[in-house]
Design goal:
With about 210 residues, the chain is α+β, with helices and mostly antiparallel strands. It contains 8 helices and 4 strands, in the order βαβαββαααααα. It is an enzyme of class 2 (transferase).
Amino acid sequence: MLTILGKRTSINVRKVLWACAELGLPCRQEDWGSGFRDVDTDEFRALNPNAMVPVLLDGDFVLWESNSIIRYLANRYGGGALYPSDAMARAHVDQWLDWQASDLNPAWSYAFMGLARQSPEHADAARIQASLQAWTRFMTVLEGRLARTRAHVAGTAFSLADIAIGLSVNRWFETPFARPALPEVQAYYQRLSERAGFMAHGRNGVP
């Protein structure tokens, strides 16, 4: 039985839960993080020295970093699903996974925390506006990509890239602000909503 350490409101924990659902992997999730069990302890730092969630336990094997975890799950248990073995096809999945982590998520982080989570530490109006502008710019990149594939982020097939980016798209629609119309992103959101794993761990009413 796989064990996932991290609270369900964490977008990175939700990546792992959704990947397990897509792969049909039974797992146990334990609530760690703000409001739950403290990650800033010797016990947790022995698993992840960064004191961050999620952490995956697969028997004696311990892994942290959400994108690394979902790659591992697909590699070990996926049988080619979600993460293609062909080098070029896999590179496109990796490209969009890395884009989500390094470009898209940092763009929306401040605005999301200020507007959706109402965090007092993220209340600077100028910084919120700058975050929204950056977020919109990257979502426009995604709009262009989806206009070309007319399906999923890395190509025609659903992949790990859609798990990572799909959760960020959910936050785009769950954050209260006057967002521009992006019809391809909207259509993509509806396609993802046909997947049980996304409805359970993405579009489930939790921003």
